[in-house]
Amino acid sequence: MEKKSVLILGTASHVGKSSVVTAICRILSRKYRVAPFKAQNMSLNSWITKDGKEIGIAQAIQAKAAGTEPTADMNPVLLKPKGDCVSQIILLGEPYADKSAGQYYDSIAEMNAVLEGALERLSMEHDIIVMEGAGGAAEINLYERDIVNVGTARLTQAPIILVGDIERGGVFASLYGTIALLPDDVRKNVKGFIINKFRGDLEILKPGLKQLEEKTGIPVLGVLPYFKLNIPSEDSVSLEDKESTETKKDIEIAVIRLPRISNFTDFEPLEELAKIRYVDLDEELGTPDAIMIPGTKNTVNDLLDLKASGMAGKIQTFKGKIPIFGICGGYQMLGRTIFDSGIENGVEAEFEGLKLLDIGTKFGAYKKKTIQVTKKVNGCGPILASIDGEEIKGYEIHMGVTDSCRNIFGDDGAIDEDGLVIGTYLHGLFDNRNVRDALMQYLFEKKGLEYRPENITTENDAYEELANMVERNLDMKKIYEIIGV
């Protein structure tokens, strides 16, 4: 068949573009070879492909929903903010440079060439490419430098579907205003609207839908209800949703919300089993049943902030009392020292860690380890002894090398003498049911409760649930016509 594509744009960030793309990828994959594509993503939640390339986690999710293997071409440019208006640029899955926003925009012509190559390769392997924009489509100050919204629209001339979030209020104004501000050559390709996150009475909304269609000449393809997603979150904006979620679960796990937190999706598999509370550095830690220190885009600066805020001392008081896990940057912080040759903080120096694990970390080169791994559990201590010898899977994304004489997952990680402080470089640790159950079994027994492993929704089930909900509420026949299939 002739190669087809569709571009999903939004009126703002966090309106649901990624979930709509995920659902459409799933639906179309039942008949066609489908690939997701996002020219440029800004996120600290990333994923490692089979060939060791780093991409935004949203595109990995979308690829899995489409039944295809994630590749760097699906997210050719990934920006990972480091602070002070500087981001690490990941180009086709590889670290390229650290640049300020101004420096990055000076290289847009080079980025466009990368996008063209990625799209060409994807088109050779797939029938349909479902593309996603970023933020709001009508950022009029960025039109000449925007590669992900207007840039992708102009490069591909794909039909466009615009998504608005009614929960934020003003959805009609945001949809109408976006259309009004788009350049003429882009506006002509907008073929439909989707209204997302609706909680009310659809009959009350219908007059507004009719007026929007009359004023723009563009059809509303459907209204999606507010829907709890069981797929990993795309970026830190999703943390705001988590903070407002109350739960009466028996177990409380505190995740330290580092200023430069990354890959907090590591803890989402625990959300159905425990209350996960994200704790800012200036908040009270309280009396959690376990503490998690997540990954970070800058280990040294987050360690310094952890200490300056007093949170480091609060965490240290729980040693030997409750489980304390550190993943990636959190693992590095748990050690004796971190030596930075200037890679992390710009100046050669040695920093004292939390001293909860007998390890040391060195940042010696601007080189990142990115790999999917399978490891064997070297089970010891009250949590992991029950799964000694079993296999787990995960992926590594980190700079720095850590020495450890008490590896806990194959040649990775460390554990203290009590078996309660555990560190590892493995992202996706709690995606492994055996690790998840071992931790929850320990926490429940410690409180005199019976742990009954729950049937957690699998990724595949989550994609089906999302796709079925979207099919029920959107005019899929019209969407097929828009795409041309």
Automatic annotation (TrEMBL):
**What's in the keyword line of the UniProt record?**
Cobalamin biosynthesis, Glutamine amidotransferase
**InterPro entries xref list:** Class_I_gatase-like, CobQ/CobB/MinD/ParA_Nub-bd_dom, CobQ_GATase1, CobQ_N, CobQ_synth, GATase_3, P-loop_NTPase
Q: Which residues form the CobB/CobQ-like glutamine amidotransferase domain?
A: 252-434
Q: In which pathway does it act?
A: Cofactor biosynthesis; adenosylcobalamin biosynthesis
Q: Which Gene3D superfamilies match?
A: 3.40.50.880, P-loop containing nucleotide triphosphate hydrolases (3.40.50.300)
Which CDD domains does the UniProt record give?
Answer: CobQ_N, GATase1_CobQ
Keyword Protein biosynthesis assigned to the entry: answer is no
Q: Which domain of life is it from?
A: Archaea
Q: Where is the CobQ/CobB/MinD/ParA nucleotide binding domain?
A: 7-227
Residues at the active site:
328, 427
Q: Which family does it belong to?
A: Belongs to the CobB/CobQ family. CobQ subfamily.
Q: What does this protein do?
A: Catalyzes amidations at positions B, D, E, and G on adenosylcobyrinic A,C-diamide. NH(2) groups are provided by glutamine, and one molecule of ATP is hydrogenolyzed for each amidation.
- Its name, as the record gives it, is Probable cobyric acid synthase
Q: Which species is this UniProt entry from? A: Methanosarcina baikalica
Per the record, the gene is: cobQ
